[in-house]
Each structure stands twice: as C-alpha cells, then as structure tokens.
Amino acid sequence: MCRWAAYLGEPIFLEDIVSRPAHSLIRQSQGATRCLTPVNADGFGIAWYGERPEPGLYRDVMPAWSDPNLRSLVGQVRSGLFLAHVRASTGTATSRNNCHPFTAGRWSFMHNGQFGGYDSFRRHADVLIRDDLYQHRKGATDSEALFLIALGEGLNEDPKGAMERALGRMGALARQRGEAPHVRAACALSDGQRLFVLRYSSDEYAPSLYYRWSITRQGWAVVSEPLETDEGDWQEVTPGSFCVFGPDGVQAATFRPQLCDLAA
Length: 264
Prior knowledge:
Blueprint lengths: L2 E11 L1 H4 L6 H7 L12 E5 L7 E5 L7 H9 L1 E9 L15 E3 L2 E8 L7 H6 L14 H11 L6 H19 L6 E7 L4 E7 L8 E5 L4 E5 L11 E2 L4 E6 L2 E6 L10
Antiparallel strand pairs: 1-4, 1-10, 2-3, 2-4, 5-6, 6-7, 7-8, 8-12, 9-10, 9-11, 12-13
Helix pairs in contact: 5-6
C-alpha cells in the first residue's frame, strides 16, 4: 500500500505537508503506521497547481527520503492545491511512468490500493481506455488505467459518477479475471479548482484516509495518515464515501461503484 497527502487552501510551501511535520509524507515513506507495508520506497511524485490551469509534475524512482532535489523543491514552491504520493508497488515495475500522481490536461490523480490479480487482466483494462485518451497511457499501473477510464466516463462533467463507473468496470474485471481482494481504493483527484477524494473497498479493509482543517495553514489536508501525533482532531473519511473539498468546506456523499456489462 502507498501513502499520499493532498492539500487545498491558502498557498503554503509544499514542505508544510511533505517534509516538515513530525509524521510528514517523507517520514511515512520510511515508517508508515497504518498499513501493512511500513516502507514506501518505490518512487514518489508531486503534482501542484500554480498560475496555469495544468499542474506541474515532479516524479522519480528514488525513495522520497533520499532525494535532495525533492527537499529543495518543496522548500521553495508554494501552492494552494497539490497532491503528493510515495509508492509501494503492488506488482508493476519501479519506473518514473508508474509513479503517482498521473496528469492529463488540467486533471491530476493518485491512488492507494489495489485491484486483485491485476496482472491477469491488465490488457483487458487497457481496452476500457477510450482511444483519444490512450496517448496518456505512459505506464503499466492499475491506477493510471483507472484514471484514464474515468476521464472517458465523463470526469469533467461528473467526477463522482465517472469514478463510480470507472471503479465499477475495473472491479468487474477483478471479479471475473482476478482475485480477492477485488477492489481497495483511496483516491485523490483535482481539476485545479476542487479536490475530490474517495474511499472504497469491496471487503472490510478500505485503505486509511483522514482529513483536517488547519487554522495555521488555512486549508484542508487529506492524508493517508495524520501528519502530527499531537493533533487529535483528524476526521476519518467514512468507507464508501466521496468527498468534495472546496472554498465552502467539504461535502460528502455515498460512493457506490456502478455494476456494468463488460461486453457493452
């Protein structure tokens, strides 16, 4: 399982989430406490929004704790909306193209979780990516496939519905051709204005996910694990929910992947 953190609010230095807190994302890459794999050393990445609609993107295959370029970047770049991820591979190769976040146009996306037996249906998942979007398929992960399928399912118009349809299609493949656990997913995605997150699992072990409004940062942090051990007001994202973070706060709705006919 991977670890990730996302932020929406007043612009802050990326290091205020990625490296400075006592249990920052970089520290979680060495010693995560709320997943089965405490070390997340198969690459990292950051997507951040600034003056342009499309996000900036920095990814590499080194462990997050060992890259001095990462510490320099997060100490200098300020953003009011960014996604950061440290990776623990569930089977695909350690390569830059397999590191999260993934981007296409103004969208950014990252995922923690798995689709059981993905190697047995990876080719079938690629078929679900719309032809005009397949140019964005650079890696081999289930996460990137999910993102591109969601774009084809109408992510621009209906983020929640698109993710329900995309996760439904991937989940159907896992049930038909893969193995249990069929779906475990904690996802974050953004269009450059809002931050969307979902937490879902086909069993009782949904990946951990928390959020908190920070008075000092004046923004929302959504994280796999709380960033500070002495902050007791982190709220857990309910399994089976889809949350929208924006200037007016957070709105939560029930998230149900849509059953689908894969032959359609």
